[in-house]
Amino acid sequence: MTISETEPIPGATTEDDVVTCPVHPKEAATLRCNRCGRPMCTKCAVRTPVGYRCRECVRQQQDKFFDAQFFDYIIAGVVSLVVSFFGAFVLARFGFGFFTIFIAFFVSSAVGGAIGALVRTLTRKRRGRYTGLVVALGVVLGALPALLVNPLTTLIFIFLATGTATAQFGLRLSLNQ
Ligand SMILES: [Zn+2]
Ligand SMILES: [Zn+2]
Q: How far away, in angstroms, is 38 Cα from ligand 2 center?
C-alpha cells in the first residue's frame, strides 16, 4: 500500500528518517502542504476543506479572495458607527415597558441588517479580511452613548445589531486569521 503524499503520515518517521520542520527545527515534519508540497509540522499545518496546507499557501489563497481596498474599511467603520449611533438613540427613547423588548429586538435586527446591506452596497461587495471586525466595532462604539439613556434597549441593540450587521462578512473568519 502506498501512502499519498497529501495525507498525514502518522508514525511514518523513524530515527534515521526524520524530516524536521523548516520553521520549527525541533518538530518532525509529519505533514506535507498539498499545494506547494513543502514538509511541515502539525503547528504549521492549516486544515482546509481541501486538505492540509502551509500558512503561506493559505494566505496567498486568501489574498486572492479578499479584494477590499483600504477605503472600504473607512466606509464600513463610518457607516456602522453613524447608523448605530442614531439607531440606538432612537430605540433608547422607547422607555422600559414590556413591549419595549419586542420593539428592541425588531429594530435592532432591522438596523443591523440595514448596516450590513449598506456597507456591502457602498463597498461594491468587495470582500475584506477585516470588514466584519470593523463593522462590529463601529456598531458597538456607535451604540455606547445610548447606554446612558436606556441600558436595556441599548444592550439588546448591541448584541443583536452586531450579529445581524456582521452576519454577511464572516466575522469569525476574520478573527481567526
Ligand atoms: Zn504550501
Ligand atoms: Zn512547524
A: 11
